């Protein structure tokens, strides 16, 4: 099991019903907070049954202690990255909910910090996918997409595994200090104050069409 | 006399060599499936046959189009000969493959076109090789064989050489630190490496290659130079192969015992005890006939063993089925089994036979364990112990049901898109099982449950059953019914809440009950459609998944009955019933494939 991708891949591999939220707040000065939550509580039986196995599809299944250890390692490594502060992780091992919160000085530092840590944790050295950008911010427009490290892995799922994604949701929330002028994704909802956007997609649909979560959010000047 | 007879057999074998493909099965084979009636397979496509797990050796032929739309007849296979599929494992190697008769070599190679000619040192034989496999053709018989060294052995040998050369672990975790090294420094390092020195993986591959060639040579030497085949060495195999049935099965359990991994400690620390126990397993051979009926395939198995083990089995199987179980198994249950043994008799007999073997050992630890066993035997009230578990048990698969669990879900504030968490009901699919046994001491499980309920509030008692909440994977409840001399564990809410006294008229019919009573110690039934197609693969161990996949898409039923147990053997029958309109040849292969996976 690719323990190093635990934040992105393991939930998608294991879950029959999964809820993922990424919640990004960007302030006018470029600083902000990124929160990432994975909720597998409605698949407790399945997750527990898989965790009880030694291996799955020929790959080792980590136990909870190993998962916790890897999350701590991720937290410690990320805390040392430039422009990153206050990294918090919380793993609820009875309901299988993982929450990560990261404060950052700039979007580029957030991205390079996460990339750097994933590359260091990746034993398989398939770093090409990790090196790709999945977010950019020029002070006016924020462009977001799903990292190809995730989409390429999901595309290798067997049909039976695909079926497992059908009832999951991926929610992407982005918050700003200023109102939003426009968004490129027509499924994106804005709050009444137009300072936050929400894009919610089905994880199976997302596998079929990974551009569903792509969004360019432009703020009012 | 025995020696003379053996020599005659060898001579006869040698004389017959070249006439029957089963004579080319190597002595290392532990399991053999032999299909006698190849007429049944005439309609089977080559690509269909090759796709079975037991044809794993030539799966690659499926991908180059050479097998497309070809029948076995097109492949030059001799239908007057048996197709013998074999598998074997020793301490150091795994051997698998099959032997068959050939009518047309050119046709054979038009289908199996991955094989290239090799120089052959075998007199009168032609040899061919593909990436993994070897094919030997001698006197119109073919032996397709794959010999692989055991991976753990290859790795231990590689490790030994690797570390003796002063290398660090191939999984050295300091690579990340290397990222700090500049490109120039890395270049200098690369130049300084000894280019002829193999890295770990190259070393492992080389060792694997050398061992593979060595083992293949050993197998061929035994088979073709020394004339030692399974046929020449095993009298039970020679006997079973003559049975006039659709197919036969042979498994040498004595050698399976010898290669059991968990016995390495016994073998190395207490070698004489190991030999004694090995002696107990002497003659432990399972043979079986596959009998093809109009709508069924019957697999009649004879498990043979030596007299000491036989005497334990006889005592163990001297038990009566407890009919109270019948009301907890529905007549239309997707799958169930019953197992009836006389545990007290078996214990006494095992004590009588095994204890003297243990006593002979001079090992101090073992000697103290023997003393403990003797004291326990003297002081413990065995009648009370064996009354608590009276030896009759059953298990059922009740299908897949949604079970109620709790989940955390996120909810959103539409004004701010802030979110919170709340706990709600959820449902997940889970296989539903029931497991129960007869007891003459219902007070014992009650005592345990009462005690556990004082430790955790998850144990609750109702008038008719106990429930242990969140017992299964910390989510689903487990119900326990302690009634009428039966103790039953189940995750079937319907059984616990609505039928704690049994299913009444929906339980097993009198006819079925009679069959089970006649069956001896074991009986089982499975509706393949209900079991293989419903059972969630996530709850299976990885090695069990291919077996379940092999059953998927099948209709029909499978039933198991054990028969008479004697000092020499026990008979077991496995019957596979199918729709009459379906192709019996295909069913035979399906059944064979399932058995192959079970025994591999």
What does this entry look like structurally?
The complex is a heterodimer of chains A (221) and B (600). Chain A is an alpha+beta fold and 221 residues long. Chain A is built from eight helices and 13 strands. The longest helix of chain A has 16 residues, at 64-79. Chain A has a seven-stranded mixed sheet. The relative contact order of chain A is 0.17. Helices cover 31% and strands 32% of the residues of chain A. Chain A has one domain (3-219). Chain B is of the alpha+beta class. Chain B has a domain at 2-151 and 206-253. Chain B contains 22 helices and 20 strands. Chain B has a 20-stranded antiparallel sheet. In chain B, a hairpin with a 3-residue loop joins strand 2 (83-89) and strand 3. Chain B is globular, with a radius of gyration of 29 Å. Residues 1-18 of chain B have low confidence and may be disordered. The A-B interface holds A 16-17, 19, 21, 23, 37, 39, 41-46, 48-50, 52-53, 55-58, 92, 94-95, 97, 120, 160, 171, 173, 175, 191-193, 196-198 and B 176, 179, 403, 405-410, 412, 414-417, 419, 421, 426, 428-430, 472-476, 537-539, 541-542.
């Amino acid at each position: 099991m690719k323990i190093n991708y635990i934040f992105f891949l393991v939930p998608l591999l294991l879950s029959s019903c999964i809820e993922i939220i990424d919640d990004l707040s960007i302030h006018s000065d470029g600083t902000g907070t990124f929160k990432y939550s994975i909720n597998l509580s409605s698949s407790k039986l399945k997750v527990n049954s898989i965790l009880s196995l030694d291996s799955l599809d020929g790959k080792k299944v980590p136990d909870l202690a190993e998962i916790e250890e890897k999350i701590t390692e991720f937290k410690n490594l990320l805390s040392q990255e430039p422009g990153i502060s206050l990294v918090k992780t919380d793993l609820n091992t009875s309901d299988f909910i993982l929450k990560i919160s990261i404060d950052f000085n700039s979007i580029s530092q957030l991205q390079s910090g996460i990339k750097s840590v994933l590359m260091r944790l990746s034993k398989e050295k398939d770093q090409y996918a990790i090196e790709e950008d999945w977010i950019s911010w020029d002070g006016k427009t924020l462009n977001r997409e799903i990292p190809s490290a995730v989409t390429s892995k999901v595309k290798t799922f067997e049909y039976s595994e695909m079926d497992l994604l059908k009832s999951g949701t991926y929610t992407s929330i982005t918050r700003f200090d200023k109102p939003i002028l426009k968004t490129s994704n027509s499924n994106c909802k804005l709050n009444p104050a137009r300072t936050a956007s929400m894009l919610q997609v089905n994880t199976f649909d997302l596998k079929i069409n990974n551009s569903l979560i792509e969004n360019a959010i432009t703020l009012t000047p | 006399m025995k020696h003379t007879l053996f020599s005659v057999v060898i001579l006869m074998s040698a004389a017959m060599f070249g006439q029957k493909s089963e004579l080319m099965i190597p002595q290392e084979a532990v399991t053999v499936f032999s299909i006698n009636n190849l007429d049944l397979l005439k309609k089977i496509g080559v690509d269909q046959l090759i796709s079975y797990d037991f044809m794993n050796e030539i799966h690659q032929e499926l991908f180059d189009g050479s097998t497309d739309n070809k029948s076995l007849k097109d492949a030059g296979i001799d239908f007057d000969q048996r197709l013998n599929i074999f598998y074997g494992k020793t301490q150091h190697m795994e051997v698998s493959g099959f032997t068959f008769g050939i009518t047309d070599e050119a046709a054979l190679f038009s289908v199996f076109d991955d094989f290239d000619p090799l120089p052959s040192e075998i007199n009168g034989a032609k040899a061919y090789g593909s990436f993994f496999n070897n094919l030997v053709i001698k006197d119109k018989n073919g032996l397709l064989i794959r010999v692989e060294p055991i991976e753990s052995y290859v790795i231990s040998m590689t490790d030994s050489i690797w570390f003796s050369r002063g290398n660090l672990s191939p999984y050295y975790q300091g690579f990340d630190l290397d990222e700090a090294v500049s490109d120039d420094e890395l270049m200098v390092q690369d130049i300084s490496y000894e280019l002829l020195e193999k890295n770990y993986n190259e070393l492992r591959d080389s060792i694997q290659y050398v061992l593979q060639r060595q083992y293949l040579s050993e197998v061929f030497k035994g088979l073709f130079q020394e004339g030692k085949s399974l046929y020449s060495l095993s009298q039970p195999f020679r006997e079973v192969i003559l049975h006039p049935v659709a197919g036969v099965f042979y498994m040498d359990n004595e050698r399976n015992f010898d290669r059991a991994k968990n016995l390495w400690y016994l073998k190395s620390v207490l070698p004489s005890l190991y030999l004694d126990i090995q002696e107990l397993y002497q003659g432990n051979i399972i043979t079986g006939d596959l009998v093809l009926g109009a709508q069924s395939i019957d697999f009649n198995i004879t498990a043979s063993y030596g007299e000491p083990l036989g005497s334990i089995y006889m005592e163990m199987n001297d038990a009566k089925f407890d009919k109270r179980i019948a009301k907890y198994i529905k007549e239309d249950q997707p799958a169930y089994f019953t197992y009836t043994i006389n545990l007290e008799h078996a214990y006494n007999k095992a004590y009588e036979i095994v204890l003297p073997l243990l006593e002979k050992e001079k090992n101090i630890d073992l000697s103290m364990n023997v003393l403990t066993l003797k004291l326990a035997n003297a002081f413990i009230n065995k009648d009370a112990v064996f009354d608590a578990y009276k030896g009759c048990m059953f298990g059922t698969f009740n299908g897949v049901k949604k079970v109620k669990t709790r989940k955390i879900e996120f909810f959103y504030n539409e004004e701010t898109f802030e979110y919170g968490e709340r706990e709600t009901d959820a449902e997940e699919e889970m296989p539903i099982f029931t497991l129960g046994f007869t007891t003459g001491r219902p007070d014992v499980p009650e005592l345990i449950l009462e005690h556990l309920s004082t430790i955790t509030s998850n144990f609750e008692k109702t008038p008719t059953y106990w429930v242990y909440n969140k017992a299964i994977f910390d989510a689903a409840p487990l119900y326990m019914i302690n009634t009428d001399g039966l103790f039953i564990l189940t995750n079937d809410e319907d059984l616990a809440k609505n039928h704690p006294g049994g299913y009444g008229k929906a339980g097993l019919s009198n006819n079925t009950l009679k069959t089970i009573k006649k069956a001896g110690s074991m009986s089982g039934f499975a509706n393949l459609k209900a079991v293989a197609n419903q059972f969630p693969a996530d709850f299976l161990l990885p090695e069990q998944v291919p077996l379940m996949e092999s059953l998927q898409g099948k209709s029909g039923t499978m039933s198991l009955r054990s028969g008479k147990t004697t000092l020499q053997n026990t008979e077991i029958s496995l019957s596979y019933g199918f729709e009459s309109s379906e192709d019996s040849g295909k069913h035979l292969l399906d059944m064979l494939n399932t058995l192959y996976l079970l025994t591999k």
